[in-house]
Amino acid sequence: MRRCGLRVSKIVAAELRENQVYVSQGEPRIVERRPRMTDLKSKTIGGVLWSVARAGWSSAVTLVLFIVLARVLEPKDFGLFALASILVEVGRVVSSGGLGDAVIRSQELDDRFLSTVFWLNLALSLGFAFLIALAAPIYASLFDNVDNVHIIYALALTLPLGSLGAEWAEAVPVTQMLSLMVIPFVFNFFCGPALTASNYPSEVLKVAMVQLLTTILCTWIAVRFGLVAVAAAYVLRAYVTMPLQQYMLARRLSIRMSDTGSAMTLPLGCALTMAVSVHFSLRSFETQYAGDWTPALLSVALGALVYTVLVMVLAWAKLRDMAMTLLSTLRKRESSR
């Protein structure tokens, strides 16, 4: 009987340790059960495998897409498209700066932190465009073709190229068409990192497969109509697949598209106002300063001024919170030293 009692005590003790139940003075206290190491390992391995599969799938898709385009496009058109794709991809990686992962990993989110992330991301994007413009001559010299400088300027600033000369006039509609991708790009900025960090990499892979199929289909239909049509098809694919990504985000993480849209109302409105001011001011300046770079430079300056003033007026509270956050961070670093 005594041996049986000892066995029961050992079993109960093991069960209490397994479920994190501790007995002190009074009644048992139940603590949240910690995940087993095997569960963590399996989740880690699964996440790594899905990430590798996604990266490999993306690389394979890019390779196949460029092979198809190299076969159906003229060398000059293919070079323009390839250069645009490279710079857009590099800009996406650099401008993100890991901010999406920082938001996802943060335990506590407040308006000050989110405001800092947003404005820092905006500053990185503008800084990257400025660096691209500065490095354009060096980049062009590496390929022994100084004419590429004009294309790089266009991609960095996303402005019309009419004043740069007739040689690059064909790049104007392509650049204008690709600039229409800004809305789906902004809306889907956090979709991939959020789903991956929440252990839903399979949803990201599904979206990538749909994007591949729609890209191939749209390109196959539009390629016979020229490069501008291919760019338009690429933009159309982005808008077609945007609801799918937002649906995945709402289904898995309960983040609705309306919530994302309300958060982007202010910056999108400022950007659209800036675009309208640049469009109409460029025509006015061209009538006064025809044949040189002056209309484009004046339009750029006016657009930057309009956007800055609107942001300062409409988002003054957010700018103040961002400045206070930066100051408090610097003070904490100085005090820690």
UniProtKB/TrEMBL annotation:
Where does the record place it? Cell membrane
Please indicate which superkingdom the organism of origin belongs to: Bacteria
Instruction: Give the range the annotation lists for the signal sequence.
Output: none
Is the keyword Membrane in the record? yes
GO annotation, cellular component aspect: plasma membrane
Indicate how the chain sits in the lipid bilayer: Multi-pass membrane protein
Q: What is its main location?
A: membrane
InterPro entries assigned to the protein according to its UniProt record, in alphabetical order: Poly_Biosynth_Transport
Coiled-coil regions, chain positions: none
**UniProt keyword Cell membrane present:** yes
Identify the keywords attached in UniProt to this record, alphabetized.
Answer: Cell membrane, Membrane, Transmembrane, Transmembrane helix
Transmembrane regions: 44-72, 78-104, 116-139, 151-169, 181-200, 212-240, 261-282, 294-317
Family the UniProt entry places it in: Belongs to the polysaccharide synthase family.
Q: Which PANTHER family match?
A: LIPOPOLYSACCHARIDE BIOSYNTHESIS PROTEIN WZXC (PTHR30250:SF10), PST FAMILY PREDICTED COLANIC ACID TRANSPORTER (PTHR30250)
Query: Which protein, by its recorded name, is this?
Result: Polysaccharide biosynthesis protein
Supply the source organism for this entry: Aurantiacibacter xanthus
